[in-house]
């Protein structure tokens, strides 16, 4: 996930550098777009989710193998003033994570390869409420930062499943709360506004459902397991 974050940051730095080309006054596209009290749009994007673990005892970390997921959602924007907007961006976020356990967790047992790995599929219905803080518009560009809180419903959760890891079922909670921080640039085209943005999301609550056995090698040493992720969104308004 760190490599993805570095690549995305470099991407936006290059966009900011190219934006310096607008130092001379140019014809403004859709000049009155941001004067609307309400505006609407949609976004498509990529996501990379991870887990952050804390542990009861000092043992090898549970390794998280991440993958690139897909995101799609809607945007409703309420203009508060020239520099502040309140946004509601419900969306669907699909991702998969693989957890790899060190054999030390299975001391006294003989684990096979399937015991050492758990696949965690997640389909989040995401409900973020965000405050967007923008700079002054420069010709057809406007940088901004954005942040807020969100709730997510994990449709792939098996929280109610009576089977646990002893039967091969790694369980996660259905409801997750997040805080979010990010930045982006509004590009004003002739007919619409295009906005690439990058955002980090960080869970506030523990997402792990413990096994029945308090000494379970999969969950017994875990104090908290919290989702964190990076979103790259492309918004059209």
UniProtKB/TrEMBL annotation:
It comes from the Bacteria. Residues 1-19 form the signal peptide. Pfam families: OMP_b-brl_2. Residues 36-208 form the Outer membrane protein beta-barrel domain. Keywords: Signal. This is PorT family protein.
């Amino acid at each position: 996930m760190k490599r993805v974050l570095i690549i995305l940051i470099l991407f936006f730095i290059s966009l900011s550098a190219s934006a310096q080309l607008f130092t001379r006054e140019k014809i403004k596209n859709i000049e009155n777009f941001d004067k609307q009290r309400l505006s609407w749009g949609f976004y498509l994007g990529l996501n990379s989710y991870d887990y952050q673990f804390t542990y009861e005892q000092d043992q090898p970390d549970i390794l998280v193998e991440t993958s690139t997921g897909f995101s799609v959602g809607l945007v409703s924007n309420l203009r508060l003033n020239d520099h502040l907007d309140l946004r509601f961006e419900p969306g669907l976020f699909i991702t998969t994570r693989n957890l790899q356990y060190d054999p030390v967790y299975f001391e006294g047992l003989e684990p096979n390869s399937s015991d050492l790995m758990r696949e965690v599929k997640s389909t989040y219905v995401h409900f973020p409420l965000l405050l967007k803080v923008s700079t002054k518009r420069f010709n057809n560009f406007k940088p901004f930062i954005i942040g807020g809180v969100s709730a997510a419903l994990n449709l792939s959760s098996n929280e109610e499943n009576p089977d646990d890891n002893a039967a091969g079922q790694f369980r996660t909670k259905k409801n997750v709360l997040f805080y979010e921080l990010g930045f982006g640039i509004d590009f004003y085209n002739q007919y619409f506004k295009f906005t690439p943005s990058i955002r980090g999301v960080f869970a506030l609550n523990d997402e792990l459902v413990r096994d029945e056995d308090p000494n379970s090698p999969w969950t017994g040493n875990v104090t908290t397991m919290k989702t964190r992720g990076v979103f790259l969104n492309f918004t059209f308004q």
